Structure formats: structure tokens, C-alpha cells
Amino acid sequence: MDVNLALSPQAIAFARLDTKPKVLARMAQLLSTAYGIDESEVLENLEAREALGSTGFGRGVAIPHCRSTSIRRPSLALLRLEQPIDFAAADARPVSLVCGLVSPENAGATHLHALAAISRLTRDEATLQMLADSPDTEAVYALLTNQLLQNAA
């Protein structure tokens, strides 16, 4: 199953943030800058989704996600936190890797397939360790691009 996730080098950042609201705001900023979508719309949609229940996936990973009318395909951003924070994750572990996803408004199955692809990527212990150990955002981009291409094949 080919998800065709957009991934821009500008959508990857390392940051020191200490609360979930700050993480969601930075994620909205990353998605906005990288994909040219409205930052306030994305933040509002991410916050609305998070209000339904934590997107803390477990194992130190959160996958905040939403939809937008101003995007054509599922688009990914990644934020690696310098210090893990409480994200009210399912397993109660603090989160240090945040994978943001914004999909087109009417992309029902495509949005779910994109979430599944991110989930598969972050379930792999070796991949998580490589993401944690990457020295810079360029290395993270190369790793993600390689992993997403492998998973699409």
C-alpha cells in the first residue's frame, strides 16, 4: 500500500519544549512553514483532535494529526524533543518523538493509511533508536525518506 506521504526537510526539527500545548504549536508552525498551510487552522485542528484523547501512541511517540482543506496529500512533520514530556500517552511514558500528520479534509482511508504507515515506522525499535541518535535534521530526513520508501515498496 503506497501512502504517498509528503515529507519536506523543513518539516523536521529538534526542540526543547516542556508542555503539550507548546509541542502542538511548534508542530503547527512546522507543518505551516513546510507545506504552505495556515498555521492557526492547523493548530486549531490539532488541538481539537487532541481534546478527543491523547495522540500519545506509546513507547515515547506521539502522532498528533488532523485534516485541512488547504492540503492535497497527507503531509508529515517530525519533532524530536530534547527532553521527554508528559503527553498523556496510552502507556504513560513521556514522549520525545512527535510525528505530526495533516491530511486533506476528505481523505478518509488515505488519512488512516498514512497514520498506519507512521505507526509501523515508529513501532520498529531500530528505527526509533536511529531517529533518537541522528545528529541533525538532515540525518533524520534521510532516515525517514529511506524508511518510507522501503515501506512503500
UniProtKB/TrEMBL annotation:
Listed SUPFAM superfamilies: Phoshotransferase/anion transport protein
Instruction: List GO molecular-function terms, semicolon-separated.
Output: protein kinase activator activity
InterPro entries of this UniProt entry?
PTrfase/Anion_transptr, PTS_EIIA_type-2_dom, PTS_SugarTrans_NitroReg
| Record-annotated PTS EIIA type-2 domain positions | 4-147
Give the residue range of the signal peptide: none
What PANTHER family does the entry give? Answer: NITROGEN REGULATORY PROTEIN (PTHR47738:SF1), PTS SYSTEM FRUCTOSE-LIKE EIIA COMPONENT-RELATED (PTHR47738)
Q: What is this protein called?
A: Transcriptional regulator
Write down the species: Erythrobacter neustonensis
Organism taxonomic ancestry:
Bacteria, Pseudomonadati, Pseudomonadota, Alphaproteobacteria, Sphingomonadales
